[in-house]
């Protein structure tokens, strides 16, 4: 049994719609589920229901309908435009919520894959023995997908044969490797196939440059369920990590790349929710890295800043795009909800067990130096270094980007605003580092690569402006 109520996060609108149809139009309204059972009704007592019409909800599967009844056809004809209007609104709410649910499910899947990758990465970092690495990878995937048997067969860094197994004898590995199924289907990518004895095989080639150097195989015995598409995806991800690597360090580097790409995909999903913030996370990450570079942070810390920048608005996935992209003034409730996005970010990222400084950077970018920020009202040095850096990057990008209610500010005006907030809102050192980086490190072309739409009051004299602004910022500090 499927019912529209199961597919609406907020069912108040459905109740209001049927109240309206019953009370304003004098109709008897019944909401039916997919099996024709009534799940709500209005106005049926004492109402003459001689004629009725059924209006199904528009959805990918049958989730029920609204039945409108009246004493005669004329009354129903008169009411029909109102009924269709209510139905269209309900259908568009269903569509919005379905899209949001799909994005959320995709995010959860990505998040659990990230979690898995971190778990594997944590176990193999520092292990210099390739065979041990493969055994750990095999055991971890084996547990994650609950296979019956599995093996990795490949070459070591000096071309020696490496074979690691789980619940398999050497004979069983050999016969599986020689099986017709694998010979025929050993294509260049991860596949699921059925062995001659009916067992389900999940096969992934290990590639080195353009040739195949080995394979990862998992087996689920005949009579058990076949491998699923998501299990195939997980193994394909691992295959993508280990295939191009030959040494443990390269293995780790590749994992880092994959991790960064997954984080970028998550950030793109958030930015896509609101056309006005399109590319925001990317730009904040780049500005934050610029500040970090100017402060003299090391490469690893700058890489971590990039990740924190990409993740800083992740929690916006929990807020409706109708609120995020609202052109007018936000209500108090809407503003309070938006202020919760760092808390949502924290909730999403906690299970991944990221290094603390990345998590702090992603969740503290709305904290302010005088304690007036959110979500925790942290002040001064209680705000982490990454939080103070990303705050400056975030505000600069917000000011220099177009919003539904205002145009993008020129670079000079945005920097002046940051300087006006030194010590009260933003960390002086971070603002000064950003100004210095714009002067010394970043050319106008590099800035244009980050944001093509940047505007200037006087681009030819930008450098002179930055020198004066830096002096102003230092003076402001002295006073
Ligand atoms: Fe934010």
Summarize the structure.
The chain is α+β, with helices and mostly antiparallel strands and 479 residues long.
Structure report:
The protein contains 19 helices and 9 strands. It has 479 residues and is of the alpha+beta class. The chain has 3 domains: 4-97, no CATH class; 127-248, GAF domain (Beta-Lactamase, 2-Layer Sandwich), CATH 3.30.450; 272-478, Hypothetical protein af1432 (Orthogonal Bundle), CATH 1.10.3210. A 5-stranded antiparallel sheet has the order 6-5-9-8-7. A hairpin with a 5-residue loop joins strand 5 (149-155) and strand 6 (161-166). Helix 14 runs parallel beside helix 15 (385-399), helix 16 packs parallel to helix 19 and helix 17 packs antiparallel against helix 19. The chain is flat and about 80 Å long. The relative contact order is 0.06. The chain binds fe (ii) ion. Fe (ii) ion (FE2) binds next to loops.
